[in-house]
Amino acid sequence: MFFKIIVSALLVSTVFSRRVSINNYQQKELTVSITGRDDIKMPPHSQIPLDLEENWSGKISGCSEMCEGPRTEVELTLGAEMDQYDVSLINGWNLPMKIVPQNGDNCQASVCTPNMLHICPDEDRVLNARGIPVACRNSPMVFKKVCPNSITDENDRPAKVHNCHAEGYKVMFGQ
């Protein structure tokens, strides 16, 4: 009887969670922030599997040397029948990022992979202690041109929020 309860509990937890694979394709270590979780250190070219419960809603972002500043974010809401996701630049840009649904019907990736540091206006550049640009504050006109399918301001919602139901998602930094 005890064994049946344990197996049933495992099946229920498996059915009500989804796998999100976090991938660091950068040449440097990243600190990854996930809503409701402790920050995770990821070595270069690494992957971390993450199980998120059904109805989880939050953001995933990463940073390298300067974590107190603008960040590219993936916003994800898992639903029983439909998920919503996007790449958001509302808080700025610091890393190329995308989210790709895995095993879903009519699902599209949300992507912003260009390096914005070369085109960021001087007044929006965030510099590290050595004076090297590491991020770009929200610059909607530039962001809209370079990443037209990403959310650059609140007016972009809901048109640029993707909807689908997938078995899981792959979040990628740097590819």
User: How many discrete domains?
Assistant: 1
CATH topology: Thaumatin
How many strands appear in the DSSP assignment? 13
Structural class: mainly beta
- Largest sheet strand order: 3-2-5-6-7-12
Which CATH class is shown?
Mainly Beta
Low-confidence stretches: 2-14
CATH architecture tag: Sandwich
Helix content estimate: 10-25%
Name the CATH superfamily assignment: Thaumatin
| Molecular shape | globular
Computed Rg: 17 Å
Account of the 3D structure:
There is one protein chain. This protein has 175 residues and is mainly β. It has a single domain (18-173), classed as Thaumatin. Helices cover 12% and strands 41% of the residues. It is built from 2 helices and 13 strands; from the N terminus they run H-E-E-E-E-E-E-E-E-E-E-E-H-E-E. It has helices at residues 2-15, 140-146; strands at 17-24, 30-34, 40-42, 46-53, 57-63, 73-77, 83-88, 97-104, 110-112, 125-127, 133-136, 162-164, 166-173. The strands form 3 sheets. It has a 6-stranded antiparallel beta sheet, with no helix packed on it. A 5-stranded mixed beta sheet has the order 4-1-13-8-9. The protein starts with a helix and ends with a strand. Mean pLDDT is 90; it is low at 2-14.
What is this structure, in a nutshell?
The chain has helices at 2-15, 140-146; strands at 17-24, 30-34, 40-42, 46-53, 57-63, 73-77, 83-88, 97-104, 110-112, 125-127, 133-136, 162-164, 166-173. The protein has 175 residues and is mainly beta.
